[in-house]
Amino acid sequence: MTLEHAADEVLLGFARALRAAGVPVTQDRALGYLAAVAAVGADDRQATYWAGRATLCASPDDLARHDQVFAAWFDPRDGLPRTAPRAASRPSTAHLLPEAEGAGGTGGDEEDVVRAAASAEEVLRHRDVASLDATEKRRLASMFVRLSLRPPVRRTSRHRRWHRGEVDASRTLRASLRHLGEPGDIAWRRRGTRPRRVVLLVDVSGSMSAYADALLRLAHRLTQSAQATGGTVETFTIGTRLTHVTRALRSRDADRAIVAAGEVVPDWSGGTRLGETLRVFLDRWGQRGMARGAVVVVFSDGWERGDAGLLGEQMARLRRVAHRVVWVNPHRGKAGYEPLQRGVVAALPHCDDFLAGHSLATFVDLTEVIARA
Amino acid sequence: MALGMDSAADVAARLGTTGYLADDELATVVFLASRMQRPLLLEGEPGTGKTALAEALSESLELPLVRLQCYEGIDASQALYDWDFPRQILHLRALEAGGQVDADDAEKSLYDERFLLARPVLAALRQAPAVLLVDEVDRADDEFEAFLLEVLSTWQVTIPEFGTVTAQEPPLVVLTSNRTRELHDALKRRCLYHWIDHPGLEREVEIVRSRAPEVSEALARQVVGLVQQLRTRDDLLKPPGVAETLDWARALTYLGTTDLDLASAAATLGALLKYREDADRVRAALDRMLAR
Q: Per the database record, which ranges form the AAA+ ATPase domain (chain B) (predicted)?
């Protein structure tokens, strides 16, 4: 009898240790665990392990934690099983970026490496993309996958069926006709919504070359995630010439898309004639419809070689056509920045938003601004 | 609900007779699900045999399989029950034609069992014992999970006009999810959880041999070896699942291939990889992978 009692205590203690390690173990889950172990037999160590995974866990992350705590709880090497899970749940945030991949150390430190990588990601999110080395750039590129865009929406004149709203008289009548004129359910409708077009104008001139790769990656990511939700994102590069790169960015694979975009852009790292290219954009695309009612995002540092007056004029024109104009400047987020360049001074009065754009975190903010536009 | 399954080994043996090879962990979880009368929530990469498990269970236990495919916008009238409105109207008209109608009686007779359209969940409760497969529950909206909650915890459906339908014996419920979104915790708490991983080399060879007996042992080994190599690459948009392995092995066999070579592999790659970018990448590296 005492033995049975002890077994329950051991199992419930394990459930508590698991909760301390961050797995959301509730009372009913713990009871389910006891019942499961009773069903498979507590003397079967392997089955007890599987019962714990099935009843106490609810996601792949939980499974990894369960395995660690299980090992610590059921084979205590140093006689102090309770300290192991405690130690595992303490985050170590001392080091910022691991120096090299080899710095991981022996197998026992695996958990530390994972956590360090997690905090390194957090650091990378806020780093200026221009200051990254090749390894960090590659790691950052893989983090872009998690960026997604909820396309901004506009109301349409067409109605859609809905479970409340205004009475949809024609649908109600048609439904009742189908039932020989018997009154049936009342149909409701509301105004529908459609995604707004998002137009990205990316400055690829020499002064922006450090950001061009990250910005195209961002454009690719936005194009892909908008496609998944039925919206459209159009991308142009501006510099000395205007190039339509949307087609290249539609390829699912980010690296290929960027190489393809690089091949079609002739003025990579060249000079800047923002005003002129913007005029070409508006003449050839924007005014005809692409920018109409769209959210237009200009990525540029505003270093204008040409006539700043022309830039201001064209920005005013863009503002009149577009629903919202957002200017993203990679230098905006840096300490001591003031919008003094001639181009920025000319363009700012015609922008709805002026945002920073030098790190992944600022890109996330940008997607929020676009979604709410 | 023992269903004749007395231990995990018994479950594995029964599933084995249908050609579904369950490892010890999965067998234990299925055994627990039937013993504890809890639904089983299966998550994992697409193509690892989540849906196949429910099919194998129904086949090996000789129980009817009721399948509820979830999709965006699914609601209770498509999953639980609905009233057959046109038939109810017809019934009323027939009563009218027959003369003297008592309003109360007529109304009562409208909400009769014969006008009740049993959708999958209600059908499973009525047919019990049965296997109920709620497939890709992550595709349904979160509101839909609330509908499932009552059924999955009390094994009954309440119909306001009719009463409560309770299962004689709880069905064996398998929920599958591809983790396109996180399920609600209330639903997860009612379920036993199991993550299905891609199988190891030996097990996958066994699976190919048992599911597609026409494929020769040598070819199966080559095919699985290559697929397992592909899964370790991290540059594929969609690494192949077991279902793709089976398709590919079958495709090669239909072409009369007995030994996997560059030409036959390249020609049939479409059975394995479903993105052009992936196929291009693998085609470029194929000779190196085959040489290994």
A: 36-211
pTM attached to this predicted model: 0.59
Give the distance from CA A203 to its chain's centroid: 22
Cα A166 from chain centre: 36
Q: What is the CATH number of domain A196-372?
A: 3.40.50.410
Q: Which of B86, B194, B275 faces A54 most closely, judged by CB atoms? A: B194
Q: Is the pLDDT of residue A5 over 60?
A: no
From B18's Cα to the closest Cα of chain A, the distance in A is 24
Whether B118 is covered by a domain: the verdict is no
Coil/strand/helix, residue A181 = coil
Closest CA to A287 of A320, A243, A327, A239: A320
pLDDT in tens, A113-128: 555 556 777 788 888 8
Residue B192 forms part of a structural domain:
yes
Q: What is the pLDDT of residues B222-244, one digit of tens each?
A: 999 999 999 888 777 778 989 89
Write down the pLDDT at residue A240: 85
What residues does each domain of chain A span?
2-88, 155-194, 196-372
Indicate whether B119 belongs to any domain: no
> Is B8 near chain A, with CB under 8 Å?
yes
The gap between the terminal CA atoms of chain B, to the nearest Å, is: 50
Q: Do A47 and B28 touch (CB under 8 A)?
A: yes
A328 sits in the region (left: phi over 0; alpha: psi -120 to 50; else beta) called beta
- Reading the block at residue A272, the tokens are 């800047």
Q: Check A24 against B277: CB less than 8 A apart.
A: no
User: Cβ contacts (< 8 Å) between A29 and chain B: which residues?
Assistant: 189
**Domain boundary pick from B196, B211, B236:** B196
Q: Is the pLDDT of residue A110 over 60?
A: no
Same domain, B189 and B131: yes
Distance (Å, whole) CA A76 – CA B135 = 41
- Rounded average pLDDT over A133-149: 84
Comparing CA positions, the residue from B210, B220, B206, B201 lying closest to residue B258 is B220
pLDDT given for residue A21 in this prediction:
83
The answer to whether the CB atoms of A29 and B182 lie below 8 A apart is no
Do B35 and B105 sit in the same domain of this protein?
A: no
Range of the domain at B88: 82-113
Residue B168 has a pLDDT of 87
pLDDT of A82 > 70? The answer is no
pLDDT of residue A40: 86
Q: Which of B113, B134, B157 is the last residue of a domain?
A: B113
Nearest residue of B to residue A162, measured between CA atoms: B73
Find, among B37, B39, B49, B34, the residue nearest to B242 by Cα.
B49
pLDDT at A143: 85
How far A281 CA sits from the closest chain B CA (Å)?
32
Average pLDDT over chain B, rounded to an integer: 87
Residue B105 lies in a domain: yes
Q: Are residues B25 and B68 in the same domain?
A: yes
Name A195's bridge partners: A153
